[in-house]
Amino acid sequence: MNRRTLIAGAALALGLAGTAMAQDKTKVGFIFVGPVGDGGWTYEHNQARLALEEHFGDKVETVFQESVPEGADSERAMTQMALSGADLIFTTSFGYMDPTINVAKKFPDVKFEHATGYKRADNVSTYSARFYEGRAIQGHIAGKMTETNKIGYIASFPIPEVIRGINSAYIHARKANPDVEFSVVWAYTWFDPAKEADAANALIEQGADVILQHTDSTAPQAAAEKAGNVITFGQASDMIEYAPRPRVSSIIDNWAPYYIARVQAVMDGTWESKDTWDGIGPGMVGIGEITDAVPAEVKAEALALKDAIANGEYHPFTGPINKQDGTPWLAEGEIADDGTLAGMDFYVEGLTGEIPN
Amino acid sequence: MDLGAINPVLLVASLMVSATPILLAAIGELVVEKSGVLNLGVEGMMITGAVVGFAIAVNTGSPLLGFGAAALASAVLSLSFGVLTQYLLSNQVATGLGLTLVGLGLSSLIGKPYEGVKSTTLPDLHIPLLADIPVLGPMLFQHDLMVYLSIALVAAVWAVLKFTRFGLILRAVGESHDAAHALGYKVVRIRLMAIAFGGACSGLGGAYLSLVRVPQWTEGMTAGAGWIALAIVVFASWKPWRVLIGAYLFGGVTVLQLNLQAAGTRLPVEYLSMSPYLITILVLVIISARGYHGAPASLGRSFYASS
Questions:
Q1: Which of B6, B254, B262 sits opposite A152 (nearest CB)?
Q2: How far is A352 from chain B (nearest CA, A)?
Q3: Beta partners for A61?
Q4: Is any Cβ of chain A less than 8 angstroms from the Cβ of B112?
Q5: At residue B4, does pLDDT exceed 70?
Q6: Sequence-distant (≥ 6) Cβ neighbours of residue A123 within 8 angstroms
Q7: How many domains does one find in chain B?
Q8: CA-CA distance, A68 to A2, in Å (whole number)?
Q9: What CA–CA distance (Å, rounded) separates A197 from B291?
Q10: pTM value?
C-alpha cells in the first residue's frame, strides 16, 4: 500500500463518516416571505421552526431564508436549499405555489410543503389553517362594537384565502349588526409597514372604527392606537403588546404541531403528499385573549361561537348565503364544501366593491 | 362609489406625512450625486436611521434626540462608504449595494430588543394664527416639526447650490473633478462632506418612518423606500424643488389610491400605483430626447489625484 492509496482510503472513510453523520440529521428548510421579526405571519412560522429544534434537538438541522420575494427569486432560493441537502422544505406563502411545484420536479427526493396553496405533487404537500373560523369571531365582535357601522379591512392580494376571510368576517358582522358596512383596501403587499399604516389611516379618516388586517406587520395596530377610538385584531400572531386596546383579540397561527408531525414522518419514512386544512378544533388556529375592552356579553357570545366552531356544531359558511350578485350559493342549512372554499373568488351578498383580478 | 367620503383636507395632510421620509432621503442623495458620487446605499442608511432613532427615543423618551442620533448614526455609516470609495477607490455601485445589505443586517441586529416596544412620537405643532385658517390650517399648518424641516431643507439645499460659493464648488467637483482639483479644491474632502450630509438626511427619513409615520420598529420596515428616493432624484433631474414635487407625487399617489379604495371607487388601483413609475420613465425619455439629462458629468466616477 503506497501513500496515495492510504490517503485515498482515509478520504473515503472520512467521506463515508460524513454522509453517515448527515443521514443522522434531518435537514429542514424554510422559505419566508417577510423578516422573522415582522411580529405576525413569518414570526409565527419561525416560532414553529424553533419549536422543531427544541423538540428534535440534535436530530434536526434547520435553515431558513427570510424576505424572499414571491416569484422567480423564490425558485432560486428553494433550489439552493435543495442543493445544500435539505430533506424537507416548507415554503410559507401563497405566491410560492408555482415555484415550489417547479423546483419539486427537479428534486424528486426532496419533500416540499407549501402553505396556503392548492397545487400538489408526489413530493409536494399543502397545508393551511382555517383562518376564516377566526375571522367569524372577529366579525362578530366587530359588528357588536362598531359605533360608526363602518369596518375597514386591509387586504393583501385577491386570493381565495383572503377573500374567504373577508366573507366570513362580513357574514358574522352583519349577523351581529345589520347596518354594518365594509370598506376593503387592497394593499398588494404582505409586508410593508408604512403602506399598511397609510391604509389604516385612510380607512380611519373615512370613518371606520374597526380595522381588520390581512397583512403581516403590526403597523395598522400602531396607527389605530395613535388614532384613538379604533379597535383592531392581532393577525397571524397575538400582537398582545397592543392589548387591551386597540387590539381586542387575535387570530394566532400555531404551526408547531404540524411541523413536528411532518418532520417525524420524514424521519420515519412515512411522509406522503397530502392536503391538511385544520382550524380551531385541532388547534392550528388559536384565538388570542379577548380583552376587557370588549363588553362582557359580547365576549361570552364570541367564546360560545368559538366553542361551537371548535366542536363542529357550527360552520361559518352555513346557508342561506347568496353571492354578491344575488344568485343563491348555499341553501338554508347547507354547508359550504371545502372545494368551493379553497377556490373562493367571489364576495357574498351585501359586500360592496369588486374583487380586483 | 362615494367620493364624498374622502376628505381632501385629511388627504393632503396625510400625503405630506407619507412623503416626508422619501423627501428627506432624496434631498440628501441629491447633494451626494451633485458632488459626483452615486451612493446606492440609501435604503441601508434609512433603515439604520429608523432603528437607531427608535432605540434612542425609547431609551431617552425624547423623539428629538432620536432624530439627532439617527442622523449621526447614518452619517457615520455613510462615511464607511465614503472611505471605501474615496480613499480606497472601490466601485461606487457595488459598495453602495453593500451598504444597503450591511444596513439591513445591522438594523435587525440592533432592533431585536425593540420589537413590539412603543415610543413617544413627535407632537403636531399648531402654528399660531396660520393653523386656525379654515381648510388650509389643518391641511398645511398642523404637522410635526420634521415635515417643516424637510421642506426647509429643500429650500436650503436649493439656495446653497444656486447662490453660494460652496454650492458652486460642490457642483464643480461633481461636473469635473479634474478641473476642480486643478483649481486647488479638495475633491475628496468635499465629497466626504456631501456623503455624510446624504447619510444624515437618509437617517432622518428612516427615523421619521419609525418615530412618526408608522410609528414602531419592525424589521425591514423601509420596504424599498430608499430605492424610491433614488428614483426621485433622477425624476427631478437633480433639481431640488423638483425633488419636492417628486416626493409628494410618489407619496400622494400611494395615499390617494388607498383612499380611493377605502371610498369604494371602481378605478383600477393597479394603474394608479403604477403611475409615478410611468411618469419617471416619461420624464427620462423627455429629458434624454432634449439631449441634456442634467446628471452631473462626473457622477459615479472615481477620483484619484495623481500628483
A1: B262
A2: 7
A3: A27
A4: yes
A5: no
A6: A104, A107, A108, A109, A110, A111, A112, A273
A7: 1
A8: 51
A9: 41
A10: 0.83
Grid cell listed for A65: 431564508
The residue-averaged pLDDT of A266-285 equals: 92
Residue range A26-80, pLDDT digits in tens: 999 999 998 888 888 999 999 999 999 999 999 999 999 988 989 888 999 999 9
How far is B145 from chain A, CA to nearest CA, in Å?
A: 17
Determine whether the interchain pair B14/A188 forms a contact, defined as Cβ–Cβ distance below 8 Å. Answer: no
Q: pLDDT band for A15, please (50, 70, 90 cuts).
A: very low
- DSSP state at residue B77: H
CATH superfamily assigned to domain A3-130+255-278: Response regulator (3.40.50.2300)
Cβ <8 Å between B262 and A208: yes
Options 1.10.10.10, 3.40.50.920, 3.40.50.720, 3.40.50.2300; which CATH number does A131-253+284-312 get? 3.40.50.2300
- Please answer yes or no on whether A38 and B121 come within 8 Å at the CB atom: no
Q: Are B38 and B99 in contact (CB under 8 A)?
A: no
Query: Residue B2 has what pLDDT?
Result: 56
- Residue pair A289/A243 in contact (Cβ under 8 Å)? The answer is yes
* Interface predicted TM-score of the whole assembly (ipTM), two decimals: 0.82
Q: What residues make up the domain containing B187?
A: 3-121+144-289
Listed in order, strand segments (DSSP E) in A181-279 are: 181-186, 210-213, 231-234, 247-253, 275-278
Domain A3-130+255-278 matches domain A131-253+284-312 at the CATH topology level: yes
- Distance, in Å, from the CA atom of A265 to the CA atom of B5, rounded to the nearest integer, reads 54
CATH of the domain at B233: 1.10.3470
Could you read off the pLDDT of B258-305 as tens digits, one per residue?
888 888 777 777 777 777 778 778 877 887 787 777 789 889 888 887
Residue A137: CB atoms within 10 Å = 27
Going from N- to C-terminal start, the domains of chain A cover: 3-130+255-278, 131-253+284-312
Contact A202 B215 (CB under 8 A): no
